[in-house]
Design a protein that fits this description.
This protein is α/β, with parallel strands linked by helices. The protein has helices at residues 16-24, 66-83, 99-110, 153-162, 189-199, 241-245, 248-258, 274-285, 306-317, 338-351, 357-370, 408-422; strands spanning 5-9, 30-31, 41-48, 51-57, 86-92, 115-120, 143-144, 177-182, 205-208, 215-221, 224-230, 261-267, 289-295, 326-328, 375-376, 379-380, 383-390, 395-400, 430-435. The two termini are 32 Å apart. The relative contact order is 0.09. The protein binds guanosine-5'-diphosphate (2 copies). GTPase that plays an essential role in the late steps of ribosome biogenesis.
Amino acid sequence: MPKPVVAIVGRPNVGKSTLFNRLAGERIAIVEDKPGITRDRIYSKAQWLDRNFHIIDTGGIEVGDEDEILMRIREQAELAIDEAHVIIFLVDGLTGLTPADQEVAEILRRSKKPVILAVNKLDDPSKLHNRFDFYELGFGEPIPISAGHGTGLGDLLDEVIKHFPEDDEEEYDEDVIRVALIGRPNVGKSSLVNAILGENRVMVSPIAGTTRDAVDTLFYKDGQDFVLIDTAGMRKRGKVYETTERYSVMRAMRAIERCDVAVLVINGEEGIIEQDKRIVGYALEEGKAIIIVVNKWDLVEKDDKTARNFEKLIRKEFPFMPWAPILFVSAKTRQRVHKILDLVVAVAEQHAMRIPTSTVNSVIEDAVVMTPPPTDKGRKLRIYYATQVSVKPPTFAVFVNDPELSHFSYERYLENKLRDAFGFEGTPIRLYIRQKT
Ligand code: GDP
Ligand code: GDP
C-alpha cells in the first residue's frame, strides 16, 4: 500500500523543522541533489501506532523582504495541498496569532484536505491557554504541543491518522503487473513510456485517482494486463515547477510503493549519480522487483567493450542487487524497447514465485552439508527447517536453535544457494532467521 503523506505547513520560525525532526526520529532523510536548492531534509518516513506515512517539511524559507516571504509561504502552502493527504498547520503559541498565520489559513481553507491545527512551543503548562487564541483561524480545536520537548505529539498524531485515506483501495487485480518507471528528471521516462505503449498498440486507459498522485495507464499485451504508474506526468503549474521538482524523489517513492516491478531508468550518457542509488535503494527496501534500463544508448559512442564496461560500473555502484537485469535501450530509435516488457513479465513471475517447503528444505539441507553454519563461542547454529512464508518479494523463514548465532555472511550464503536453485532473477529475497519453538 502507498503510504499517506503528511505535510507540515506554517510561517517561518514556528518550529516546522523541529517538529519534522521529532516525527522523523532521525536526522537523515533523502535530500535533493539539485544545486541551488537548500540542501535541507525534505521528507522522511515516520510511524505512529501501526501506521506508516511520509512527512514533508515545507520549511526552509530564506529571509527576504516581507512580500517575498509571504509569496513563499503561499507557494509552500499550495504545494503542501497538492502533495499531502493531511496537513499539519503549525503556529507559534508564544508569539500568538500573526497576519502571516492568517495568510496560511486562508490558503488552507480553500483546499479540501484535512487540516490539523497544532500550537507549538507550549512547553510551559501555564501557557497552555494561549492555544485558544487560534480558534478564530477556523480549524477546530487547536492541539497544544511542544516540538522542542516532544510533548503533545501523541494527541497530534492520533488526530492526523484519523484522516488518512482508507486502506481498502487495493486498486487492481492480483494478476495485473504494476510497473513504475523511476529515475531522475530527463533520463527519458516519458519517452520510454510512449515508446512502450506505441510499440504494443495497446488499449490504453488513463486513470486519475484521488488518493494516488500519479496517472495510471492500463494496458494489455499477449494475454497480460499491465498498469504503468506514471509520475512524470505529474508536472503541473509552471509557476511552482522548480519547487515541485523538489518533490520528484517523493513521487518516485510513492510510485515505488504501488508497483510490483520498478524499472530504474539511467541516462547512458551521464552515468550514475547518488540520486539514482537512493531511488533504487528505496525500491529494494520496499521489496520490489527491479530492472535497470540504460536509456539514450543511441547517444553513446560505442565499441565492443562499452556495454560490458557500463555493466561493470552498474554492478559496482549497485553492489546490493547483482540479480537485477540490465538492458541498454534507446527510446529514440526504439532499440530493444520491446524487450522491456518481456523482462518485466519475467521478473514479476520471479517476484511472485512460490517454492514448496520440501524443495526449499532440500536446498537448505544441501547448503548446510556443503558449508556448515558458523560457531560462536563454542555454540553452533543449528538449522532445523525453512519455509517460504510470502511472495512479492519471496520471503523465507529459517528456523534455528538460536538466531543470535546467525551471521550476515551465512545468510548471504543461504540466499545465494536459493538463487542458484530457483533463479529469482530481478527480485530481492528475504530471509528471516527465527527461533524454533
Ligand atoms: P521553522 O522555521 O518553522 O522550521 O522553525 P524551526 O524548527 O527552525 O524553529 C524555530 C525556532 O523555534 C528555533 O529556535 C527552535 O529551537 C524553536 N522551537 C521549535 N520548537 C520549539 C518548542 O517546542 N518550544 C520552544 N520553546 N522553542 C521551539
Ligand atoms: P523524463 O523527464 O525522464 O520523462 O524524460 P523525457 O522522456 O521527457 O526525455 C528527456 C529528453 O531526453 C527529451 O528531450 C527526449 O527527447 C530525450 N530522450 C529521451 N530518450 C532518449 C533516447 O533514447 N535518445 C535520445 N537521443 N534522446 C532521448
